[in-house]
Design goal:
5 helices, 8 strands, 2 domains, alpha+beta, globular, two-stranded antiparallel ribbon
Length: 217
């Protein structure tokens, strides 16, 4: 066989191998595209969830696993017994049945929040706190005015309380310099004046750092 034919045979063999290698590479690339495409499609088909904590919930000190504040409160069906129930926020104090029920409903709908109910409130002889008929839900940091997220969360709590006032035997709600009373429902949220006791220019006196809620009984 001539040297020229030998060179051609070697060239043909090498070319065949190159073609096969090229086809294998192309096939592998196509397979990779198909697999990646299927993965992306599968991911896109999965439902998006918001299981993580909201910024408002974290800023308010609520549990990151707190359920969303949706739905109506379970109505209070107890009796008028005076300050007879233990206060979960103060070992020295007591709550009425209606206030104890309200506290439980707040926790069920908003999760754990920094809350104070019974208190002596010696500077305010007309306060509902020493009667076990009121709770304060701290929003943001006590003694400071709220940022946008905390303020929005405070209104979420306040409006939920107002919407469930009848079911929870609520008398009035104070938040963000405003007060709503069940007995004056047609007047909507009114400017809170402090009743001549509280300095409404401060975060605490004007109820900018906490939502106050009082029950009728």
């Amino acid at each position: 066989m001539s040297w020229w034919r030998r060179i051609r045979r070697v060239g043909t063999a090498v070319g065949g191998l190159a073609v096969k290698a090229g086809l294998a590479t192309v096939a592998g690339f196509i397979l990779l595209v198909v697999v990646l495409g299927a993965g992306l499609y599968g991911s896109a088909a999965l439902p998006l969830t918001s299981a993580g904590p909201t910024k408002a919930a974290l800023n308010a000190g609520a549990s990151p696993l707190a359920p969303p504040a949706t739905g109506a409160a379970a109505p209070f069906t107890g009796a008028s017994t005076g300050c007879s129930e233990p206060d979960p926020t103060n070992r020295e104090g007591c709550l009425t049945q209606a206030t104890a029920w309200l506290y439980d409903q707040l926790e069920q709908h908003f999760g754990k929040q920094p809350t104070a109910c019974w208190d002596r409130h010696e500077w305010n002889p007309t306060s509902d706190h020493p009667r076990g008929k009121a709770c304060d839900v701290t929003i943001g940091r006590a003694g400071t005015f709220p940022g946008d997220a905390d303020r929005a969360h405070g209104w979420e709590v306040a409006n939920w309380l107002r919407a469930n006032a009848s079911a929870l035997d609520i008398a009035y709600v104070i938040w963000d310099g405003k007060i709503w009373s069940a007995s004056r429902e047609d007047e909507d949220w009114r400017t809170y004046t402090g009743g001549g006791i509280y300095d409404v220019s401060t975060a605490t006196g004007g109820h900018y750092d906490h939502v106050h809620v009082s029950t009728r009984d």
